[in-house]
Amino acid sequence: MNTQPLDFFFSFRSPYSYLAGPRAFALPERYDVDLTFRGVIPMAMRGQSVPREKGLHTLRDVAREARRLGMPFGPVHDPLGDGAIRCLLVSEHAIDVGREREFVLTASRGIWAEAVDVASDDGLRAVCERAGLEWAACAAALEDPALRARVDANTAALADLGHWGVPVFVFAGELFWGQDRIEDLEATLRDAGLDLPT
Amino acid sequence: MASPADLLARRVAPSAVIALSRVTWPARLGAATRRRLGRRGRVELFFAFDDPCSAIAVIDLTERLAGRDVRLLLKPVVRRGIEDDPAVELKRRYAIDDARRLGRRSGLELARREPLAAQDVGFLAEWVAAAPQGPALTRFCVAAQHRLWLESEGPVERADYGLLWRACLGGRPPATGGPQALRRNERLMRRRRPYDTPAAWVHGQWFFAHDRLAQIAERLDDLGWTAGA
Predict the structure, then answer these.
(1) Which of A44, B112, B177, B223 is the most buried (most CB within 10 A)?
(2) What is the DSSP string of B103-129?
(3) Are A63 and B86 inside 8 Å of each other by CB?
(4) How many CB pairs under 8 A join A and B?
(5) Which residues contact A28 (CB under 8 A, 6 or more apart)?
């Protein structure tokens, strides 16, 4: 069986994406899949309203889920706006240098468990360097229109799939929405005979 | 440098919400007091008959609560979801795929492949809302969700469900009071804060009931309403 593509749509503003990250990036270690990270612009910056009740429930639910998964959660610093966009641009640069896993996991943990303000140069620089990226190249990425076009294309691709939220996995045309649907995705990967020998 | 207002909105307030959500002693104290007064635990399940994920929640939660000293209150609603949500149709269609996969986790196979219109099953919500809570009503809800989502694909025939009602509760479904009772459920759901179904309210916390079944059980364990206790 050939390696199969698996798309992973992610938002730095989504704490559920943060919860999904470590398990998502580990999938190619256990299944014969080629995982493509696709960072998207936050829902609240795409004209979709997020009511207060939903925001509050998300924080409380993620706190419970993080405890179940053994992941830290809080203190946080909401990256909505510049912070999210800057992380998306750097993540595209990180893809180019083969360090997207390190950057995405480090930045999302910084945002959702260490209250790092990624909208500030100091905050973003700290997570970039922890992820093994050179700050000068990351700072250049923030001004690179080609990288911004890739982010916009990812965001448009999610909309074209008829989907609204993240994290979303797409395998063989089938969508799996939610960090708590990774087990269903894994069942599908096993059914497709893609599990790797341990 | 972020302004104080920015820091409050982005850091202080959300971090405080998270920290406060971990404070469990008031709920545990309340639960212990309730038990001392001889009262049972209470789970309110807000659900919709046109929602396949609600079908999974009603069927599965009923089983998981068996053996606990907990009263399950079934609260059907019709109005649900985020107001003016542009993705509402996409969500309802996706819910079928999602419920199909969630059902498989519990050995349930969804038969229906297309969304149901709320108005086609509104009569079921009215019947259930107007009836007294209890094991017979729970049996009806479980059987009706089975029939709606796991055993049929075509149009919903009111007469079939009338027969099911007779089998579970005896007599005819309530002829009056349904719309008012339904509105009461919808108001209660808003007060409890869930914005969509299926939602289980468990002594001060709410959970999406189709994909947090294990967490609901964990909450009840934490509060002392363990299985077989």
Answers:
(1) B223
(2) HHHTT------SPPPHHHHHHHHHHHH
(3) no
(4) 92
(5) A6, A34, A35
Chain A partners of B207 at a C-beta cutoff of 8 Å?
61
CA distances from A22 to A18, A63, A103, A124 (A): 8, 16, 12, 20
Dihedral angle computed from the Cα positions of residues B215, B216, B219 and B220, in that order, rounded to the nearest 10 degrees: -140
**Tokens 């055993």 -> residue:** B151
Q: DSSP code of A195?
A: B
Has this prediction a pTM greater than 0.90? yes
B83 to chain A: which residues are within 8 Å by CB?
Answer: 51
| CA–CA gap between residue B142 and residue B165 (Å, rounded) | 11
Average pLDDT estimate for B137-155 = 97
- Cα–Cα distance between B30 and B167 in angstroms, integer? 38
Element (H, E) at A107: helix A100-113
* Tens-place pLDDT, residues B177-196: 999 999 999 999 999 999 99
Which sequence spans correspond to the domains of chain A? 21-191
**Half-sphere exposure in the Cβ direction for A29 (13 Å, CA):** 6
pLDDT tens by residue, B107-119: 999 999 999 999 9
Whether A56 sits inside 8 A of B193 (CB atoms) is: yes
8 Å CB contact of A77 and B10: yes
Cα of first residue to Cα of last residue in chain B, in angstroms, is 55
* A21-191 fold: Glutaredoxin (3.40.30)
pLDDT band at B229 (very low <50, low <70, confident <90, very high): low
pLDDT of B60 strictly over 70: yes
Choose among B91, B160, B21, B99: nearest CA to A58.
Answer: B21
Q: Say if the Cβ atoms of A75 and B83 lie within 8 Å.
A: no
Distance from the A177 Cα atom to the nearest Cα atom in chain B, whole angstroms: 8
- Chain A residue numbers touching B101 (CB-CB < 8 A): 176, 181, 184, 187
ipTM, two decimals: 0.94
pLDDT, tens digit, for every residue of A60-104? 999 999 999 999 999 999 999 999 999 999 999 999 999 999 999
B199-202/A168-171 β-pairing? unpaired
| Of the partner residues A48, A63, A117, the one whose CB lies closest to the CB of residue B2 | A117
CB-based contacts of B46, cutoff 8 Å, min separation 6: B75, B76, B77, B80, B185, B188, B189, B192, B194, B197, B198, B199, B200, B201
Q: Does A173 touch chain B (CB under 8 A)?
A: no
B31-56 tens-digit pLDDT: 999 999 999 999 999 999 999 999 99
